[in-house]
Each structure stands twice: as structure tokens, then as C-alpha cells.
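sry for the spam today, last one i promise. C-alpha cells for design, 344 residues
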């Protein structure tokens, strides 16, 4: 049976974070009415229950001692699946390990499965590692230290999980506008967009307007000094249709989302570094390479073959092939690896 210490640690951190965000004093001092206050509580508690259910789903996985088999985890969305398939191809072609696959899991459950050896690798992001798994915020990273390097070191100490070398791209929050509008007005950064916002309508999913979170709509506007003509909270599945139809002019996306290409959008440089970084890498146990030293002594070298090989534009295109064109993730991963000389 898996050790539950790690799970309990994550749940405790998340519970503390949620309790902080409940901020009941806002209800008591009249800044939020009682109805809204209880709605906030209900929503945050629902998040905690979801985390509990996800981590419980790992309880029956157990650990493995087989050092001839390497267990990979299917991704819940195209980006994760493509990168997992790349790992599978590289491992099968460069080691004697037999690659097996486990059904997809949510982030916290995947980390627990990885730590307890139910699986051996997952795709993660330094920002996710910092906030979701370690329970920290970007302000916890000492000034002058790189977030990725700090997370890599501290994650190994606190969780027994670390990251391989970065692939090169980061999938963070991004402000997106129509490509032709940006080109016509020479808009490259978010600051370049500011003079035009008084005539533009901003739209994003409901969560982006959540005033309980720090990386959201109000603090974003304050950071850049933005005043929109109007703003709209839109279902996440409809925001690209809304910008395609002209109902909104600007949206918040994710920097490698394949739908950005489909809607002919470009992301603007976050020149004031408002959004945290989310560089992608493989998440592995800090003991993984030692565990496979006899059966795959080159495993670390193999997984790091992708270091610096995938930029944002490339990852967006790969996601587009799978999510929009409906191509098979293995096929897309293999084609990419052959194209950069890492597979035959």
C-alpha cells in the first residue's frame, strides 16, 4: 500500500490555502454579503473534496519493484499526452526497458502515484510544482533565485519529486488578441495593448474573474493600468467562439493552446511579469535514476534529450495537430522526434 504521508502533506497545504482564501472576515465586516460569502465557502470546500477524491483514487495503485518495466501515465489533455508519448518512444528506442501505460490522473494523484512508484514519470510545470504540490506562491521563492531551480531542489527535499531539464517552452497564462489587429497596431507586449483597451471588450472564463485569487482580473488590470470598454465572464468552452464572432476582442488563454492557432490569435509578452512562469519538464522521483541504474544506466541522459528542443510555437503547433486536427498523439510525437533527429 502506498505511504500516505505525502498525500496528507499536500491535502494539509491545500486545506490551509483554501481556509485562507475563504477569508470569512470579509463577510463579517460587510465587504461581502452573507449570500456571496457562503457561495465562496461552498466553492472552496468543493475544491478540497475534489482533491480528496482524486488522491483516494491512487490508494489502490501500490508500488512496483520491477526494474525492467517503465510505467508512463496517459495525459488528460493533448500537451501532456504528446510529451508522455515522446518519453515512451525515447525510452523504448534507447534503453532495454519495457514501457507500460497507466490511465490518466489529475495532478495531485499523478504526483502521489509517481512518488509511490505506481508510475515512473509524469509531465509537470515548475509553477504547478510550486503552487499545487508544494503549497507555495511565487513570493516564497527567494529574490534572485530562478523559480525552476528552486522548485527542482526544494521539491526533491520536501516531496521526493524533482524535474528533468526544461523542454524550452512554458504554458502559462497569456493575453491573446487577433493576429491582424496586433500587426496593424504594432502590438507585441501587454503594455503596447494598454492604449487601445478603452475601446476593447475583454472576455475570459469565470475563474479569471475570481477576486479571491491573486493572478486574476482585478490585480492584472491594476498592474498594467488597464480600463476596458467592457468585460465578460464566459464559459471556458465558448471563449474562442466569442472572439471568433467578435463578441469580445481580447481573451486570456494558455500560451501553448492549439486553439490559439485555430482562431488566428497571438499571445502578448507579459512585459511586467504579472503571470508566474510555467516551464514544462518531466516530473520524476528524486531516486528514479538510481533505481534504474542497473537496467537503464542512461535513463537520465535519454529523458534530457528533449532539453531546450521545444519552444512555445512548436508546442502550440503539436497541440493543434492533436486537439484540432484530431491526429494521434503517438504519431505526432514520433514525427517530431524524427524531424529533430532523436528517432528514426
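last one done:
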Amino acid at each position: 500500500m502506498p505511504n500516505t504521508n505525502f498525500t496528507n502533506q499536500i491535502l494539509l497545504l491545500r486545506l490551509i490555502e483554501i481556509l485562507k482564501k475563504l477569508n470569512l472576515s470579509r463577510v463579517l465586516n460587510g465587504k461581502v454579503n452573507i449570500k456571496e460569502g457562503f457561495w465562496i465557502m461552498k466553492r472552496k470546500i468543493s475544491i478540497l473534496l475534489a482533491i480528496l477524491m482524486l488522491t483516494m483514487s491512487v490508494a489502490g495503485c501500490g508500488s512496483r519493484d520491477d526494474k525492467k518495466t517503465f510505467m508512463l501515465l496517459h495525459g488528460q489533455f493533448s500537451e501532456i499526452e504528446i510529451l508522455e508519448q515522446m518519453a515512451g518512444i525515447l525510452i523504448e528506442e534507447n534503453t532495454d526497458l519495457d514501457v507500460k501505460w497507466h490511465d490518466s490522473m489529475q495532478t495531485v494523484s499523478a504526483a502521489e502515484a509517481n512518488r509511490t512508484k505506481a508510475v515512473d514519470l509524469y509531465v509537470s510545470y515548475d509553477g504547478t510544482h510550486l503552487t499545487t504540490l508544494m503549497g507555495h506562491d511565487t513570493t516564497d521563492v527567494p529574490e534572485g533565485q530562478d523559480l525552476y531551480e528552486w522548485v527542482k531542489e526544494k521539491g526533491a527535499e520536501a516531496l521526493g519529486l524533482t524535474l528533468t531539464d526544461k523542454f524550452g517552452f512554458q504554458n502559462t497564462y497569456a493575453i491573446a488578441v487577433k493576429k491582424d489587429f496586433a500587426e496593424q497596431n504594432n502590438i507585441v507586449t501587454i503594455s503596447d495593448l494598454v492604449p487601445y483597451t478603452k475601446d476593447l471588450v475583454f472576455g475570459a472564463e469565470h475563474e479569471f474573474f475570481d477576486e479571491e485569487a491573486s493572478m486574476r482580473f482585478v490585480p492584472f488590470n491594476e498592474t498594467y493600468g488597464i480600463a476596458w470598454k467592457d468585460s465578460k465572464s464566459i464559459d471556458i468552452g465558448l471563449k474562442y467562439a466569442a472572439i471568433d464572432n467578435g463578441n469580445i476582442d481580447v481573451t486570456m488563454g494558455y500560451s501553448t493552446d492549439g486553439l490559439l492557432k485555430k482562431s488566428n490569435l497571438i499571445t502578448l509578452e507579459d512585459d511586467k511579469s504579472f503571470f508566474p512562469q510555467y516551464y514544462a519538464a518531466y516530473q520524476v522521483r528524486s531516486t528514479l535514476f538510481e533505481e534504474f541504474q542497473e537496467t537503464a544506466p542512461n535513463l537520465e541522459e535519454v529523458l534530457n534529450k528533449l532539453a531546450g528542443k521545444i519552444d512555445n510555437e512548436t508546442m502550440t503547433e503539436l497541440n493543434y495537430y492533436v486537439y484540432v486536427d484530431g491526429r494521434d498523439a503517438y504519431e505526432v510525437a514520433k514525427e517530431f522526434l524524427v524531424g529533430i533527429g532523436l528517432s528514426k
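The domain at 69-170+280-339 is CATH 3.40.190.10 (D-Maltodextrin-Binding Protein; domain 2). ok im logging off now
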